[in-house]
Write a structure and sequence with these properties.
Elements (H helix, E strand, L loop, with lengths): L2 H15 L4 H13 L1 H6 L2 H4 L2 H5 L4 E10 L5 E12 L5 E7 L5 H17 L6 E6 L8 H15 L8 E4 L6 H15 L19 H18 L9 E4 L4 H12 L3 E6 L3 E4 L6 H13 L5 H6 L4 E4 L10 E3 L9 H9 L4 E3 L8 H10 L2 E3 L1 H4 L2 H15 L5 H25 L6 H19 L4
Parallel strand pairs: 3-4, 3-5, 6-7, 6-10, 10-11, 11-12
Antiparallel strand pairs: 1-2, 2-4, 7-8, 8-9
The structure holds (2Z)-2-iminopentanedioic acid.
Amino acid sequence: MNTQTYLNDFLTQTHQKNASQKVFLQAVEEVVRSLVPVLDQNPVYMKEKILERIVEPERIISFRVPWRDDKGEIHVNRGFRVQFNSALGPYKGGIRFHSSVTADSLKFLAFEQTFKNSLTTLPLGGGKGGSDFDTRGKSDTEVMRFCHAFIDELYHHIGYHTDIPAGDLGCGAREIGYMFGQYKKLTNDFTGAFTGKKPNWGGSLLRPQATGYGISYFAQNMLATRGDELNGKICVVSGAGNVGIHTMEKLSELGAKVVGFMDYDGSIYDKDGVNAEKIAFLKDLVFKRRGSVQEYAKKFKKAQFRPGKKTWDIPCDCAFPTACENELNGEDAKMLLKNGCKCVCEGANMPSTPEAVEAFKEAGILYSPGKASNAGGVAVSGLEMTQNSMRIYWTAQEVDAYLKRIMNNIHTSCLTYAEQFAQKGDYVAGANIAGFLKVADSMIDQGLV
Ligand code: 2IT
């Protein structure tokens, strides 16, 4: 059978089987479309039905999470863990706590994670979990009771050699702490069964910074391919969470001027750009006081707060979508291009819609998919696991050197595989092909399981 016919049949079937799962299907389409030349040259992947197997999670766990609020009232949330693929190692991926979480959204994230983890070169399978629980507006004790209830079920399914969760949207060091505490109590076992722990009880230095720093290193590499650099570039970021703030921090350290960022309430346009003092204010505001970016414009009077508005209309050289999936649509992409944007480096998972990606590709600007440019976070999670196994701590400088090396390797892999399969300079194709080949070959090695 010819590859194109095979792929069309495969996609029709996958759509039929997962009819309501829009974001998952979007992610599958993107990966599979990149693989045409790979399947052409290696029909063994069709014969072994690797695509049919790779889009099916090994296991999805869905469970009830009952908990009491501070007034004693009972609430019931849904908890999930999608254990997608363990060809390369134990399942690895974050936990998302947000009202938007569904089995579909986590299935898409776990699918992406499988390829991302493969790109890091570390021995990590792919997984993702979470709950439709929103930490916003909850007290510390409510968050703790919820996290304990979540682990009361999840602890059966995770473990150091099985599945190692970490943080994601709505799940930071506080939540990891409560989950780890309950896990340890129930299992009577102090192991590195979570990453993103605090450094005083097993966490890696630089894990909180890793995704944002890695994104900045990746952007530096991308610009270098065109003889350019970050120094002096006008940049906009979208999210103002852990990833967004650490991206802003490293971009500024590397000489770029970050003039825009946003959160759930709206965006900030600060023509002067952020600096160390402003970043310190933002860290305190977001990480400690859990406040809204509106306060930034009250504190720094020249900055403008724009209620309910995204950042993509702000003129920039480089854009960093670091919030969530499909946050940057075709219109946003056109606006960025019209204003002269020449590099889009994704920090979130699949933040650009297919229309936006098409517009970037057509314009020939530098564009990298999240699974390549945001892999620094999970890479340092992998390094946290290594340090836990060795029962030592590396210095921040040691972790940073590893992180840089891993981001450089991923960048090189993307370009090498894109060129090898006739899609030169296409980071999407390169990331998908490089990520796929390692997982697919390992699946074949391990037989039909
Ligand atoms: O999307 C991601 O890569 C993460 N949320 C980090 C996962 C991890 O295991 O550190």
